[in-house]
């Protein structure tokens, strides 16, 4: 009888119908926000404000998400964001940055 020698965190997780539902939901929300809210905001604020905001916001969003995902994926432990940041920067910074990240999400 063979034993599975892979550590638990190296095993592949199945992609279930529940996961597929979440993917569809996220894509649907992104498409809905883009097709409904973006043209309204462009009409209210003007095209130049929209272009300027897009030039500033897209790279900023990409850099922040890139740092966030690299921090989580390259850590040794599989814990939450606050615990991983606390491991690197200390407990106080971990709590502070965890609260800031939470406020950015909402």
From TrEMBL:
Keyword rRNA processing appears in the UniProt entry: no
Annotated GO biological process: amino acid transmembrane transport
A single GO cellular-component term on record: plasma membrane
Superkingdom field: Bacteria
Topology relative to the membrane: Multi-pass membrane protein
Membrane-spanning intervals of the chain: 20-40, 47-64, 84-104
Keywords of this entry: Cell inner membrane, Cell membrane, Membrane, Transmembrane, Transmembrane helix, Transport
Pfam families according to UniProt: Trp_Tyr_perm (PF03222)
Compartments reported by the entry: Cell inner membrane
Protein name listed in UniProt: Transporter
Taxonomic source organism: Escherichia coli
């Amino acid at each position: 009888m063979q034993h599975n020698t892979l550590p638990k965190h190296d095993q592949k997780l199945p992609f279930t119908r529940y996961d597929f539902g979440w993917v569809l939901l996220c894509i649907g929300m992104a498409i809905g926000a883009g097709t409904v809210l973006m043209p309204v905001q462009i009409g209210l604020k003007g095209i130049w404000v929209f272009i300027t905001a897009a030039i500033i916001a897209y790279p900023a969003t990409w850099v922040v998400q890139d740092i966030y995902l690299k921090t989580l994926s390259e850590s040794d432990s599989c814990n939450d964001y606050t615990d991983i940041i606390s491991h690197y920067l200390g407990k106080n910074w971990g709590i502070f940055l965890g609260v800031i990240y939470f406020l950015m999400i909402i």
